[in-house]
Amino acid sequence: MVRFFLHLTQLAEGYARHAGRARQQAIALGPASCPIVHMTFASRITRMPRPFAAEPADDARAALPWADGPVAELLAGTAGCSPYLRGLMGHEGDWLQGALDDPEAAIATLFADLRAAPLDHVALDLRQAKRRVALLTALADLGGVWPLETVTGTLSDFADLACTRALRAALMAEVKRGKLPGLTEDHLDTAGGMVVLAMGKMGAGELNYSSDIDLICLFDESRFDRDDFHEARAGFIRATRRMAATLGDQTGEGYVFRTDLRLRPDPAVTPVCMGMEAAERYYESLGRTWERAAYIKARPCAGDLDAGQRFLSDLRPFVWRRHLDFAAIQDAHDMRLRIRAHKGLGGAISLAGHNMKLGRGGIREIEFFTQTRQIIAGGRDPDLRVRGTVPGLTVLAEKGWLPDAVAQELSQHYRSHREVEHRLQMIHDQQTHDLPDKPEDFARLACLMDVDEAKWRHDLIERLNAVHELTEGFFASDSSPAPEPTPLENSEVIARWPRYPALRSDRAVEIFKRLRPEILCRLERAAKPEEALLAFDGFLAGLPAGVQLFSLFEANHQLIDLLVDITSVSPDLARHLSQNSRVFDAVIGGGFFADWPGADALSEELNAVLAREPDYERKLDTARRWKNEWHFRVGVHLLRGLIDAAEASTQYADLAGVTLGVLWPVVQADFALKHGQAPGRGAIVLGMGSLGAGRLHARSDLDVIVIYDPDGVETSDGARPLQVRVYYARLTQALITALTAPMPQGKLYEVDMRLRPSGNQGPVATSLAAFRAYQSGDAWTWEHLALTRARVMAGPDDLAGDVRAYRAELLAAPRDQDSVLREVATMRARIAGAKGPGAFWDPKLGRGRMQEIELAAQASALLSRAGSMDLAAGLAAAVAQGWLDAESADHLAQTHAFCWSLQVGARLISDSQLDPDKLGAGGCAFLQRVTGQTGMKALADTLNSHTGRAADILDSALPPRGEPE
């Protein structure tokens, strides 16, 4: 864990210490390069407490005659303000003299000695160490020798070590008594499967000066037989109590740390040490938002650290939700209000007696603000899962979840508040956060901080108010007046809303009650409000649960506008969104309205996302969620006019290609677990049709062919080997299942494999030799036409290169133009005979529509012997070949572009046959915009005239057609 941020260097056992830039360079270069520059403690002092009381200051000077100069001033000022630290100087003055020569080395040596010491006197040893750590860190803090992060990090590291030693001693006692079945002293290094989790500030490495330590103690019950479980649990419970007593009991030598074990699951009824499985069950079924927040900072600090890390990994789905969890805002806000009410901390800020931790503008508000934002988005972005408060603010700003200026300001206030907190606690070693309520005590605190009291009071008030203003707006509900009631309020549609599943819970009803005026106000601004209301009603009716989504809307009102846009344009898309509402997360996640990143960046992102998932099913679920969010992004950009239909079709194709390319090796790896690695040279996935051409719409299926090369291998080498043909057939089926299986996240794509050799009668996977033989000897002309749009989507580079080379060779063969065009004419006739004339609003099927124009372009590409061309280039080549004139080719290209725009727009808003009478005003307006028309009549006239002329051009250009068979 990164704990320290300013001027740190690495010393013994990885312990980070502040030593100054010159010394860091010298240590890094080594003794052979230059002598170590030693900066004295005195030379590093940057501030100095003033004695509040002269007598204890003078006593300290007399008791520590070895101190002079700035060190003597620091000791006197500290003793004159803090009776507690004055007492520590009397106890540990001799040790302090040497420790101040090199405080980092002194701490490292102290820790090393503790680790090596026998456990016979662990309580005494830890109390002595606590006095020394407390004294040295206080002086380094007060003198400005160490920054805050080094101070809190040193205290936290000592707490880790103290827990480790106290636990080891407690477990040794149980082992010697034979109370931990099967365990010997050799098992003490891993604590017999018991782990101590550091929570709160200790977990984050931010322990305050006189802090309790919050611990959760667990043990791995899987290490014990069923008959031994109860005895083992009893032994671990006794060890936990002994450890807590070693740390927390007040003796003549002091104490080490007050220990709080109440953060464990249901502490009123559970033992102080419980099994990991029982704890996990509790969190899965009963865990609350505050417990999720607590686990942001959790880390194993003593005992079996590996077992503790495994437990935290298993708990990750509880802490970090896969969706943006804006409902956590209300939970955190409610908890803040309960704390304020319980502690009596409401009301305006007044310095006298103000609680620097829990009061308004205090430390806890900054922590809640940071942790709640981490909970909201940390499930989607692992980079946000940092433990420290300042690091959390920093990464939230880097990821765009709050402005950088806000993060910097809150970080400054947090550091300042923590320093005040430390000085409050240094005076009497009290676990207090309350500012003094007596004038003389305020004066003492100002002396210890070395500040002008009047100015400091003013600055502190400003800081507290600034923190409160920055954080309160995030938690509190919008206090702006609700919009005026709209005529929609009286609609009969609204009367049925309380019966919908999304509004079954009281909490959902409460949030939606606050949202409803805003939603209705936005619906009222639609072109046809009643129509928009009905569309929104369809969305709400299909929503299975409401709390999370309503919380998302409440925190991000711009999403209401987006939802109204979607529901107004496409009730069909709205119904889809009601079942896949988490795609709204992507809008808030940052970069949603940025430019398209391109296939390479998408591939890198998807690979990284899937690499974090532990198993195959989770990878598939994650791939579906990832694809759905990007798919939604393309649709919203098209809906909002940020991209046109051509750009949308390219982006849909990029997304499909990346999904195939990344998922294919994932499917293969899972399949190989049972049946071995792919035999021979592996297999490639060949994209056909619109996928191969790189032009898809929102509901396109994927036309693919799988081609493999056994390279002389007959069977796979796995635990359950398969013959090569069976292996690749089943592997292909596994890919189809991965793409098409309907899951809670939806399906990835529909898959069409009818373009493979021999169509549905052929094997689902084809060997390279069979593919070559078929295409060279048995394939129909239309199959060669289809190959002009083929593109390798996934698979090993060498095999992909061979397939590309063969395809280029095949398509480069000379063709008789009249024969090819006659075949195309026959295909037109067959399609017309099978499909009929097509519906008027169908842009794909029918005379002069997309499919016919694509056939003409493919024929030209085949005759050009160039392999592949886009549609415009193919039609242009037909001019050079002499069977189209330039004006006709241009009209065909324009007609196809127009029909394609209509197809892309229509498929975004509905999966049904296009019918303007059922689209509503929003859907019709969208289609007009995406096709560049003004009015549905103009759109119909353009479609009719363009396709009619295109049909006439093709009739004239192609040879006379035979009757369809």
Automatic annotation (TrEMBL):
Residues 80-312, 563-799 form the Glutamate-ammonia ligase adenylyltransferase repeated domain. GO terms for molecular function: [glutamate-ammonia-ligase] adenylyltransferase activity; ATP binding. It comes from the Bacteria. One of its GO terms (biological process) is regulation of glutamine family amino acid metabolic process. Keywords: ATP-binding, Magnesium, Multifunctional enzyme, Nucleotide-binding, Nucleotidyltransferase, Transferase. It holds the Pfam family GlnE. The keyword Cell wall biogenesis/degradation does not apply. Residues 339-475, 844-914 form the PII-uridylyltransferase/Glutamine-synthetase adenylyltransferase domain. One of its GO terms (cellular component) is cytosol. PANTHER family: BIFUNCTIONAL GLUTAMINE SYNTHETASE ADENYLYLTRANSFERASE_ADENYLYL-REMOVING ENZYME, GLUTAMINE SYNTHETASE ADENYLYLTRANSFERASE. This is Glutamate-ammonia-ligase adenylyltransferase. It comes from Puniceibacterium antarcticum.
